[in-house]
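Two records follow; treat each independently.
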Amino acid sequence: MKKCLILAASLCTTPAFAEDALNLSASTRVRYENIEGQPRVGFNESDALFSVRNILTGEYRTGNWQFEAELYDSRAYGAVDGTPLSTADVNAFELVQAYIGYEARGAFGSGTKFNVQAGRFMLSLGSRRLVSSDDSRNTTNGYTGVRADIGLRDGLSATLIYALPQVRLPDGRSDLVRNRIQMDRESFDLVLWGGLIGQKRPSARDGIELSFYHLDERDSADLATRDRALSTAGFRIYRDAAPGSISYESETMYQFGSISAALTPAAPQLDVSAWFTHLELGYSLDRAWAPHVSLEFDYASGDGRGTKFGRFDTLFGMRRADFAPSGLYSAVGRSNLIATGVRLEVTPSKRLDAFAAYRALWLASGYDSFSTTGVRDAAGSSGRFAGHQFEARLRYWLVPKRLRLEWSALILTKGRFLETAPNAPVSGNTLYNALNATISF
């Protein structure tokens, strides 16, 4: 903590050596959320939580060099016994970023560039479905290692990483409730490496990406794990939205490797064979409010009764953009899921935007737990339909670039599986609301 205090103080006192060379920024987000009819196993039927996230960022540039540090202070209040409180909500006074970067233009000829950074940093790569630093959640994902970005002519680019994902601490219930300060840990017990190659011409809206990531996880002295050794290969094509035009996205990933059957050291290793696909087709109307409507389909495999482990692991991927809010809800993620739906987005003005979405939800495997709810029927006799999810969000800049208000709401009408599975909470349909206010400095 002492090192964090010294660095935070230095960010605020370092002189600006040249105009725009030193940039300081900060933000505070407060959120109140409540839920009725919790669909996840082991938590209160109804609950509420108040969270605060403060971010302080300092960046200094000189020539081709860049130095950046970013401090996150994520805290939650009002948790009681049975509240689903975790390191997704609390990570107090953490130096998530502290890196040095160097950029060389023309490294591979005219119009090319090469950028490398080393230290602690955040990552959001490609579609962010495997590697991201979540901004919607109260805490974020940090990584420690080396990243290299290569930009070539004709829109060809590549990103390579070798990183140790930061394990957020503390993770004990009592420490989380008290918002205890403890530095996150990175070690070679958890390693992520790989990258992606993409092509997108500056004048075009179409893009293509090939990606590959490998995750190695093993037990440490303090933590027993599933000893994952997972490789994930992906292919993505997309077209960005534009007024009066069709947009689309297709991404498919195949995951293979091994995982322990349980946390115990003697647990047998299982071969992994899992996959995920996202399909989206949209159209933007060229008229007031810029309405954009899209049809969406997601499939994430689940574990069955075979000899191989079939549940797709989203690694460090985001949740909010594709599925639903995290926080007290966090019921729908990229595992054992089939989701079809429609989304409508509008932007009435520069200060106001909104969307509404509907999804029908099924289990990919009737023997595995549904997505991230923990609800399971090992006999597979409770059907596969999970329910209907209705969602909406409204955001408004009360003071442009300084104060933004946000309201999110979700209704889940439970289907047969979430009502009849042996461990399904007897809590009725789900109603979730969240109010946010973000102040930027």
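The next record belongs to a different protein.
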Amino acid sequence: MTEILLVNVSGPDRPGITSAVSEVLAAHGATVFDIGQAVIHDTLNLGLLAGVPRPQEVGPAMEQLRTALGELGLSVRFAPIAIDAYEHWVGQQGKPRHIVTLLARAIRAEYIARVTRIIADHGLNIDRIARLSGRMPLAASGSRTNACVEFSVRGETPDLASLRTSLLELATDLDIDVAYQEDSIFRRHRRLVAFDMDSTLIENEVIDELARRAGVGDRVAAITERAMRGELDFQASFRERLALLKGLPEAVLDEVYAGLTLTEGAERLIATLKNLGYKTAILSGGFTCIGRRIQERLGIDYLYANELEIVAGVVTGMVRGPIVDAARKAELLRELAARENISLEQTIAVGDGANDLLMLGVAGLGIAFRAKPLVRASAKQSISQLGLDGILYLMGISDRDARIIPDC
């Protein structure tokens, strides 16, 4: 009768360790049921779950492993596994899997302790932990560093809404970001990423910048803030703000564009996505005259925004064509998915305002980026502490993966 043995190896990492272990087990006709390995700061931890078909050979196999690994400066521990325990483990493989992603400027032990406590309190088990961010020098400044740890969890929680609420409250309390998403095939096969422009791809609100130059900055900014919080109808507020720009010289647009700032991480994110073959789009309630320049600068595939009417070199205070509002953004995302022959589950949408919520809701992965409280609470995921390139972590793309891509 097969004896099942859990083998744990630890010690300084070096080539040939896995080979040495498996060669001993092979000599005794063992079958490997599970295997996993991690190396942290040049220290190896290797685990194997093996079935030895002849019980009388378990003892000799253990002795040979101790000798072979001792010569390599490694320690080894053994634990027999009962058949019913093994069968229980096999039965767990059908349970749902999710990914919990912890993002911050630096990962403090407190963050891990509190995130994992919430996971445990909701009856979920952690199968795997991986660091997706690069190695951080001690002298690195915390203001622009990225740090990310990903937890693969398994199980069913009786109250998913409560779990999400707990993670959101924790993120707010600690000034970190915590994402919880299903570990499905779609997570690893997204194909289209759509962005809002103002306060998402760029740090500015273009209409507010124009308004300042028209001498109505405070009035327009107040309307913009209320609209982004969802307190005003977007179309009505947009027309109201636009009317206040009547008479503004067209040349001011060049001045405004020159003063715009790309959001932290935008160039790295778009370059990475392009080199991985993703399609990208701007779906904006802003203006095409600015959007085209951002599109060209970043190399984005699609642009949909509002056409600012200019006659004889002067802004008329009107817009040509239908306004790109919340409903239109969601519709455009569906159209682009159909054009690219992909499902909506393979799309990602990123935005900060209330007029982005419908778009975030229909996307396979909707991300509220540095968003207003209403948007952050309503979106599937949110990022508030890192730059736009933090989205790569939610996609499961590590810094190591990104580094092999040129010009990132």
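Discussion point: The radius of gyration is 27 Å. How would you locate this feature using only the token line?
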